[in-house]
Predict the 3D structure of the following.
Amino acid sequence: MPLVKQGKMVADGYIHVADDAEIPVDGAALISAARFLADPEVLLKRSSPTGVIWPNNRDPEELVPYLDKLAVVALVFPSFRDGRAYSQARLLRERYKYKGELRATGQVLRDQFVIMLRAGFDSFEVKKDADAEAFAATVKRYTVFYQPTGDGRITALHQRMQLRHAENAR
Amino acid sequence: MYAYDEIDRTLINERVSEFRDQVKRRLAGELTEDEFKMLRLMNGVYLQLHAYMFRVAIPYGTLSSPQLRKMAHVARRYDRGYGHFTTRQNIQFNWIKLADLPDALEDLASVGIHAMQTSGNCTRNVTTDQWAGVAPGEVEDPRIWAELLRQYSTMHPEFSFLPRKFKIAITASAHDRAAIKVHDIGLRIHKNEAGETGFEVLVGGGLGRTPFIGKVIKPFVHGRDILSYVEAILRVYNQYGRRDNIYKARIKILVHELGIEKFAAEVEDEWLATRDSALTLDNEVVEDIRSRFTYPHYQKLSDTPDELTAASADPHFARWLKNSVAPHQRTGYAIVTLSLKPVGGPPGDATAEQMDAVADLADKYSFGEIRVGHEQNLALPNVARRDLPALWRQLDKLGLATPNVNLVTDIIACPGLDYCSLANTRSIPIAQELTRRFANNDLAELIGRLHINISGCINACGHHHVGHIGILGVEKNGEEFFQITIGGRADEHAVVGTLIGPAVPFAEVADVIEDIVEAYLALRARPDELFVQTVERLGVEPFKERVYATR
């Protein structure tokens, strides 16, 4: 499955560790939430980057004590119709100030890229190659945004106020 | 009228171009139907029994004459020459081809009309009183807030894949014409002691197979906080709303299962964490939106011009005047409802020719403005009273002056099995038969205000639960049967109607309704006791006895 990170297709440096598999001593690894929470301090002392795969029905607030040490939080879209991870993403970025990689996994399709970026995702395990290849073009599709989110894009309401102030200053 | 600026227009055009690409990918097989389905739904495209259906938004029920002409154009060019106005301030075209949809959307975009989020599990078209801005006694024009909410909810990056659809309605009048109590969020505008605008917020109303009347979650949310408060409700719903069962996924079920107190506490916690954010609406921002609603330059006119007095000698005109014309905020003006419920016609349908003609009449008599209400009628909101006789003559020729507004033949009905793939029964033929049975205007006037609502299945698009008389189609052993409820209402006293007895077959529905109406006429305490008041006073039993005694 292709990985898009910072807008580019890249090789995924992380191993998804199955629940019954041994956690490798070396090498970047993504670990399930239950396993991570069983022993978070030890796991975060691994010599390689560690990330957690966080299910969409679990409160991300539980991750707060570990956020500055986690390299990746991978949120899950079991189906693209299930939008719970958008709320988790915004909470992690905007309320809990998570700065690391925020990865979208599961049924990640081209038509969700823009809103995923706006919710705070910066890496994407994309389901189809063609969608991953279309990433750069797809995210340029929209230039107008009505809602303020943590991605910092200016909203239409504020864009209008800026225009109005500029007109008044003339 | 709200004028879209370059920013709004850009977004609509970007959306059309995205949808064009999605349709292309679907036709090329790059998108599966399952993947495409949610995308097309969010652009208003359903797959019905015979064809694709295309639902276009009429934000807060306000249309300009060029916009209505463009609807007529779409009906003519891409459909079969007519459109159907729905109960949520939308218009539907029933025979459109998938490959034509991007062009139809592009044509509509040229007049600032779109189909964004008219379906799908997202926030739908924000609706309000069709008399907004002209109704006497209104607190303020609710469309300013409806537009702020429209912008806020359009392509929301967090709430585009909610557990289920989400509907918001706003009213600013004591008499609720927007049915806010049967919406996921209902907003009633009122002022606090300091004279500042805010909202009584209701949550968890809705019809469908489990009807609920909305409950007050907060008596006053200040206008500046309304977006953050709505966001808090949506965030709680997005995380905790049920996704295991489509029939239990609406917010009303979450509110019911948690209880309003616990739900309100969850929302309050979430809100307190987000209220002081970029969602706060500065007065300046609200005023900027307000400034882009333009209002007519009304003249100083008389409420009793000579033209009106003279024409009132004609009993046909007088009847229409009494029935379809309502008072306006401004002296000398009136709000005129155009009935889309002619005898024998499908409720809410208008032909392209009618739409064009109404647009012309709006230009001539209503400052170019048309309104669409949830009762599936149109309105001209700004008619000088001296012009009423001339307007009436032209409406009458167009078949748009049936004097039955709010009367027994002003029926709300879903499309039913004639179009809809979800329906169990037909709705339109029942409505048509009832309009014939009660075609006598004297009889209809004698009966007085009486709302009949018909749904062809339990999804309740015809709002049968809140009809004074509700008719619900069900299938029994392959045959169409109808359950009848009475005593429901959708206004500020909203209540779900009560079933009067066993379902009746298709052929008997009109007889049963006639029996119910006859019972009412015999039972009412005085001529001005409305049907729904008689039911409230006596309960359903006396009606049940009359209907089932001989069956």
